[in-house]
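Work through this:
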Amino acid sequence: MSVDLRQISLDVIRAGQADSGAYVASPTFSQYGYSWLRDGSWIAQAMDTVGEHDSATAFHRWAGRTLLHYADQIEALLVKMQQGEIPAETDYLPTRFTVNGRLGRDEWPDFQLDGYGAWLWTLVQHCRQVTPALWPEVRPAVALLVRYIAALWPLPNYDCWEEYRDRVHTATLAALYGGLRAVRDYDPALVPDELPEALRQYVLAQGLHPSGGLSKFIPPDAAPGRAVDASLLWAAVPYGLVAIDDPIFRVTLAQIERELHVPGGGVYRYRDDTYFGGGEWPLLAAWQGRVLVKLGRLDEARRLRDWVAAQATPAGHLPEQVDHHLLDGSYYEGWVEKWGTSACPLLWSHAMYLILDAAIQEKEGER
C-alpha cells in the first residue's frame, strides 16, 4: 500500500518540533536529539512552503532567542579577535543546541558557519513573505550574527558535513553570502555594502578548480574524490553566489551529475565519503531536483522526487542516507556499531522532499 509521503512528512516534522519551537534533527537516532540551525532552517522553509507558517515562525523565534542568549560569548570572542588572540574552540558558537537553546554536553565538531547563513536566508524569506512583524523581534540577534560572520568568514571551520576543520569550504561561503545578501536587501543598515561581495569575489578568485567549476575546498584540493561536493548545488539555488545559468555553475552541476549522481538513483555527498560507507542522500537528490526544476528539466526532477519517495520505510519515514550503492562498504559496520543504523526519520530529508514536491507542482501549474 502506498503512503501519502507529503502528509507523513508534515506529521514527522510536527512531531519533531519541541514546545520551544526548535526542530529535533531526528527523534530516534542516538546523536541527533539536538536542533541544528542548518537542518532547522530548511525544515522551517519547508513548512512555510506548504503553508504551515506558525511552525516556521516558532522556529525562527527560538533561533533568535537562542542566539541572543549567547551575546556575551560572541562579544568576548570579537574582542579576542580584535586583540589578535586565537580563540579557543569553545569560544565559537556551536552548530547545534538542545531544543531548549542550550549547549550540548558531549563533544562535537561545533565550529561551523554555514547554518548561520542558512538561518539568515530563510529568516528573511519568512519575514518578507509571511510574518514581517517578526523582524523587529529578531533584528538584534541578526545584527549580532552579522558581526560574528564578518569577523569569522575567512577562517577554516568544519564544513556542512562536520568534517575538515582545517579547510575553507565553498558551500559554507555560499550560505554566508546568501544570508548576508538577503539581510542587506531587506534591512540594509545591518550589513556593510561590501561584505557579501567580498565573500563572492573571494570564491570566484580562489575557489574554482581547473575545470572552471566550483571547488569543494578553497584552495582547491588535488585529490579527485574531493574536487566537488553536492552541497555546491546551493551556491546557485537558493543562495545565488553564482547564477544558475552561469557557466561556472553549469560546469559544477555537470560534475555533480557525472561523479555524484547514481544513474536512476540518488546523490552522494562527495566521492571520498566514508560516513556509514558513503551512501546516497535523499535530501541531496531532492536538492538536485530543485535545481533541475529551475532549469526547466522537469521530467528529471520528477524522477528524483520519485526516487526519494521510494526510499521511505513502510511507515513513510525518510532516512538520512541509503546503502544501495556504498562508496566504501568497509566503513559501514563500524558506524552501525558506534551509533546504530542511519538516522530515520531525518526531518531535513522530509523537508527537502516537501520543497521539491512543491516546486514541481508550482512549475506544473504554470503549464
Observations:
- The first helix runs from residue 5 to 15.
